[in-house]
Amino acid sequence: MPTFYDSNGKSYILSEQIGRGGEGTVFACPNDFKLVAKIYHEPITDEKAEKLRWMADNQNDRLLKVAAWIVDTLHETPNGKVAGFLMPNVKAKEIHELYSLKSRRVYFPDATWQFLVHTSANLARAFYNLHKSEHVMGDVNHGNCVVLADGTVKLIDCDSYSIKKGDSRYVCEVGVGTHLAPELQGKNLRDAERLETHDNFGLAVIIFQLLFLGRHPFAGIYLGAEDKSIEDCIRELRFAYGSDAKLRQVKQPPGTLSLSQVSPRIALMLERAFLTELRPEPHEWIEALEDLSNNLK
């Protein structure tokens, strides 16, 4: 069983694997069940190690409230090279398990539409707190946001974020095309500056998916001759549910909710999010979703 050491030389014997991704494996921590450990499959760069150390040294209550933030680095030997990190143990379901109808019946059987509105507001709160610390998620997607049973949302995979450090920034090099803003589609993400407005696009996509029964805002029916991917439609601003969708040669799929079934305020915000670069910020979503929740009948 492998043994790793935190920055103070405390040992952790990692035995129970609880998750595995392309970049690393997550283990339970028998020393402290409130924590889990992520160990990278391959050695990381010096810059990545420095980023993890900085994140651990600059954790705060605001970030720990909304994210599985790095709380310490892990090393193969005391004071050795960084091999992974410790983070809070978040027992929750990925957000797509809530907005997908099939999995919602299994994991959130009592969820009402009001619960979806409540969760959407909590998602916006998580982004609000992240941005208040001047960090950017960058890689917004349905796997990086998880939901607890009460609708609380936590942000995970924090080691990939674009992290503000004084006048400089540690970069985010990855992204999922279905949640990338139009101006980032097809770009080399390693060279692209990730901004809050890009996060705001991805945030709006997930809010839409929560409110519209798992549908993607750009997964419409294209009225042209050739096929269009979701990424194509994002780049070309073909929002399938917008008031001018036909002018953009797209229409929403049959049997789906329309913008008229949310409040006029949220309908306008969705059009702003997907058709302009003046995208609603998290605090705007919090206010609008709370207003919607308070006026449901």
Kindly describe this structure:
It is globular and about 60 Å long. The protein is α+β, with helices and mostly antiparallel strands. It contains nine helices and 14 strands. The chain has a seven-stranded antiparallel beta sheet with strand order 2-1-6-7-5-4-3. Helix 5 (113-132) packs antiparallel against helix 6 and helix 5 (113-132) runs antiparallel to helix 9 (282-294). Helices cover 32% and strands 17% of the residues.
Low-confidence stretches: none
Straight-line N-to-C gap: 56 Å
Number of strands: 14
- Summarize the main sheet: 7 strands, antiparallel
User: What string gives the helices and strands in order?
Assistant: EEEEEHHEEEHHHEEEEHEHEHH
**Helix share bin:** 25-40%
User: In one word, what is the shape?
Assistant: globular
Overall pLDDT confidence: 94
Neighbour order of strands in the largest sheet: 2-1-6-7-5-4-3
| Residue share in β-strands | 15-25%
Derived structural class: alpha+beta
Radius of gyration: 20 Å
Count of alpha/pi helices: 9
